[in-house]
Predict the 3D structure of the following.
Amino acid sequence: MQFYLFHLMPYADLDLSAPDKYDSAWVTLPNTYYDPKKGHQLYNRYLDELEMGDALGFDGLCVNEHHSNAYGMMPQPGVLAGSLARRTKNVKIAVLGRALPLLNNPITVAEEFAILDNITGGRFIAGFVRGIGAEYFSWNVNPAFSHERFHEAHDLIVQAWTRPGPFAFEGKHYNFNYVNLWPRPYQTPHPPIWIPSQGSTETIEWASHPDRRYTYLQTFSPIAALAKYMAQYRDSAEKQGWQASPENLGWAVPCYVAETDEIAMREARPHAEAFYQKFLRMPTEMLLPPGYLSLKSMQGVMRAKAQMQSGDKSLEAVMKSGMFLCGSAKTVREQIIRYQQEIGFGKILTMLQFATLPHDLAVKNMEIFARDVMGEIRKMNVSPALAAAK
Amino acid sequence: MSEPKTYFETVEGCKTCIMREGTGVPLLFLHGANGAGRWLPFMADLAKSFDVIVPEHPGFGRSDTPDWLDNVGDLANFYLSFMKQLGLEKVTLVGTSMGGWIASEIAVRNPSRIEKLVLVAPAGLRVKGVPVSDLFLWTAEQTTRNLFHSKELAERMLAMPLSDAEVDIAVKNRVTTARLAWSPRLYSADLEKWIHRIDLPTLILWGRQDALIPAVYADRFHELIRNSKVEMLDNCGHLPHAEKSAEFVAAIRQFAGEA
């Protein structure tokens, strides 16, 4: 199993009454709640935490893209990835991912990712997403064209990476007379592509196409949904004539480890609850604007996300559903191994800082996780995924 | 209440649902974002003096969603083909909200089959500094409350349960509305450039308490369409045909009868 350290870079100093007052931590939450002096501290602190991940032996560091919100301050993740590219030597660096349909010129991402791949000498992993629904409000991009634009932008970027330029690209949304990427990517034919998703049937079928075989990442989902969508990926691959391996499947989950179960729950509680109750808060209309999902997928996701969008979001509830891993190293280790064996993912992407979790606890969490969870699981050689990873 | 003939007609490759009833000169009614799934009392009333034709736009209700449908201009071109195929002439063209936007785009392109134009709280233009409300952030319940001025009427509407099929159609209508009108919201810079070409007699009807497209937008349409007049309805929200149907029908009858 491979271990990745995923940071969301939340605005940890958020006035926690604000998301309730505005019914959202996204789109309409006034940026007067953001203090640049605190932001200066936070960005540097978070980059330090990610850089620690290199020393602690994680396989990779992950950043992502979200706009106009307190949940994650990385509207332009390439800036953060660029900083990490020079300050790390061993880990892979993943941008998971850029929201392609938002772009009027997807070549910008082809260029940005190619630069990162060149600087790191091939330590770069490319992630492509559609963004969450809120992004379509913030960037005023039509959600009804989201799928069309995603596929067209993806095709354009991969062609820009792989076809000798200059060539013309003739699409519906994107048209270029001279696609001619300087620099070309370092890795051949191009950096690995990962697809984070929340369980859209179209995305799973598309990612598992034999021409792509992209790594599928399930984010913020109850274990039941994780199991379902990973099985769906494997089934879809099989129907399309190939066998998916654990390498093709990853799970992104926030996690807190401490000396004992009791200490872990006590220390994590206010921050985990702020994460699910405040930082992720938004109305359904904002999360799922019309056209963002097909009707079929929308029903599927709504069922899977029922617990996240409504109802009980206490620490106990999110732990029970498997949306948050929390406990002693032994507890968390056993949980990961059990889920890994049941579900068959080969990559785990842990968020070891979340919401308001302060630096000292985040560092303690990272150190215990790296030594007693990641380190021990690597030694145990329990899963078929392990051989492939090492 | 009279019952319309409901049938499908394939126009520009799109199977289109049409409700039609009444005798007289043709009145083509273009619905707004919420669709036109039911034959409503105001339609029956108009059918006493008009040949009332109520299509469901491509992408809405029981009509197909054609591959070519990307923007309101596509619907305007579609309706030019529609009027030609049905042999409609001397049409009183009535459009409400997004239907008013479509009607304006039709009249800019080719007014030859149109006698008179009625724009009911139409979308399509912009008054800078006075944004339209973001209907895409409204819940279904908020939408009903915001579209009607009368609280009693809104409550009555909310008390009527939707069937599963109606819920499916509401989702379909909302998706098509986003496709046509998300960005820029309910506005076309091209329409703003060319709407002055409309020289048909035009009646602009607006609810004074419109919470989606503020009543000040009536002035903008009036300013740009030289042969237009504005009639403002008191105690009325964004849907005058539903909220003030008697006044709505009377205004259209009178306007149609004017020389």
Remarks:
- Chain A is about 45% helix and 15% strand.
